[in-house]
């Protein structure tokens, strides 16, 4: 329906330059609604990804490694807007201790990744020599240091196939699929 205004002026503010047609206003509101719906759908997808990740972690058990990459999947329970960044005192001894702890954990994580890569190389060497059981042991050792390294899981599955451990190979392949679903948005980056 259309409302005819006297003199094409707003009856409240008496301005005519800010008047828009009802169809234009409806189109503007529908665009806002579409933006809100798409944002809401993205939020729900990220929240579902977080919940799936939490469920998978409950199945895996507690790991010795802390995977900070997984923190990117966290979604807040409410839809509140972010408040400002907190002001952190730079000279605080607690802050300096926390910063030192973060650096130490980062260094430890890098060392574990390096050790896992060395174990993978040793396992690959055993595979070349035909020592498949030794390769499995090296890959298992590497997985103790870095559980989410797909190359270790796939190489281990191949070695398990070579020694006819079918169920173990299936379990190793399932781990690769699970990690890909959680950390890589499906198989887009695999």
UniProtKB/TrEMBL annotation:
Q: What is this protein called?
A: Uncharacterized protein
Q: Name one GO cellular component term.
A: cytoplasm
**Mind giving the lineage of the organism this protein is from?**
Eukaryota, Sar, Alveolata, Ciliophora, Intramacronucleata
Fetch the SMART domains from UniProt.
TPR
| Top-rank lineage group of the source organism | Eukaryota
Coiled-coil zones? none
Single Gene Ontology BP term?
A: sperm axoneme assembly
